From TrEMBL:
Species for this entry: Ramlibacter monticola
InterPro entries: GHMP_kinase_C_dom, GHMP_kinase_N_dom, RFAP_synthase, Ribosomal_Su5_D2-typ_SF, Ribsml_uS5_D2-typ_fold_subgr
UniProt KW keywords: Kinase, Transferase
All residue ranges annotated as the GHMP kinase C-terminal domain in the record: 257-310
Protein's name in the database: Beta-ribofuranosylaminobenzene 5'-phosphate synthase
UniProt domain GHMP kinase N-terminal: residue ranges: 79-144
Length: 337
């Protein structure tokens, strides 16, 4: 039975969690030149997922159905962290059914951590909220959209991390129109920054100027959010593209001088933007890129034209996805019924 993340009922035998990918559409003020650092806009998508099963067992067992040794090691580490924090040390069985591509800009680390945390919490009847799990597992230091996306889905705006270190507060959530699509462009040969490399890159960058941060805030408040809420695709797409242009120029020095980590993804997305009405950009440090189109037909037509023009590199993985207007799902198997 599928339940929203966080739902609880009676004694549990095992649990499956399906955690969605998210696109990080950009920070509002990464340096805090307007007075508060970060703040971010993101979208949960109905495409790749992190799927895992966790239950109680006679002995510990950690396995994966996909080549995911690094992800499996992280999942085991999350279980150990949760054991230390909660005192629940009974053996567990954990199987990774699928994972999100690592360091691709899809939120793989946060979604894996929260999926493990939610499954562990439900299995032991702990009732831990997503924000609590994120704090225990070290997620959400800069962006809150992965945490909010795990719970809610949709287009999400957060207000930046709080002074006490708690995850960013969710300021707005909007369900995108059902017809809208995103062309998701993945480059398996490129890798986005993460961890210590990401921190070092941020430290080397000059602060985003106050005027640029103000422009991004205006684009989000007056074009992206109203466009999404009112079903007006043109202002939504234009606002996303403009905030991505500003941020792409700012972060380019950390990406070999490019707005896109993947040159191949950048060529395709720039071509789509030049030949159709689309909102384009890169999710976080990439290499995942995206192009928003107002319908499935328009998305497929744009891809067909791009292929005919020879701008789709063979190495790219391309999906047409819709927004996911709900969060992670928990499917549980109950003892005695």
């Amino acid at each position: 039975m599928a339940l929203p993340a966080g739902a609880r009922r009676g004694p549990l035998a095992g649990v499956r969690v399906r955690a969605p990918a998210r696109l990080h559409l950009g920070f509002l003020d990464p340096a805090g030149t307007l007075g508060r650092r970060f703040g971010s806009l993101g979208l949960v998508i109905d495409g790749p997922e992190c799927v895992l099963d966790l239950g109680r067992g006679a002995t510990d067992s950690f396995e994966a159905d996909v080549p995911a040794s690094a992800a499996l090691a992280r999942a085991r580490g999350h279980v150990e962290t949760l054991r230390r924090a909660t005192g629940c040390t009974a053996p567990v069985t954990l199987r990774l059914r699928s994972t999100l591509p690592a360091h691709a800009g899809l939120g793989s680390g946060t979604q894996l951590a929260l999926a493990v945390g939610r499954a562990f919490s439900v299995a032991f009847g702990l009732g831990l909220g997503t924000a609590q799990l994120a704090a225990l597992l070290g997620r959400g230091a800069r962006s809150g959209v992965g945490i909010a996306g795990f719970d809610h889905g949709g287009l999400l705006l957060d207000g930046g991390p709080r002074a006490d270190g708690a995850p960013a507060a969710l300021l707005a959530r909007i369900a995108l129109p059902a017809a809208w699509r995103a062309i998701l462009v993945l480059d398996p040969h490129a890798r986005g920054l993460s961890g210590a490399d990401e921190k070092a890159a941020l430290a080397r960058l000059a602060p985003l100027p106050r005027e640029a941060a103000a422009e991004i805030c205006h684009e989000v408040l007056m074009r992206v959010l109203p466009g999404a809420a009112g079903g007006e695709f043109a202002p939504f797409a234009a606002g996303v593209s403009r905030m991505q242009q500003v941020l792409g120029a700012h972060f380019a020095p950390a990406q070999d001088g490019r707005a896109f980590t993947s040159a191949a993804a950048g060529r395709l997305l720039d071509w789509i933007a030049a030949h159709t009405e689309a909102g384009i950009g890169q999710s976080s440090w990439g290499p995942a890129g995206f192009a928003f189109l107002p319908s499935e037909e328009r998305a497929q037509a744009a891809l067909a034209a791009a292929r005919a023009a020879g701008v789709v590199a063979p190495a790219l993985d391309i999906l047409v996805v819709r927004a996911r207007n709900h969060g992670a799902l928990v499917a549980d198997e109950r003892a005695g019924g």
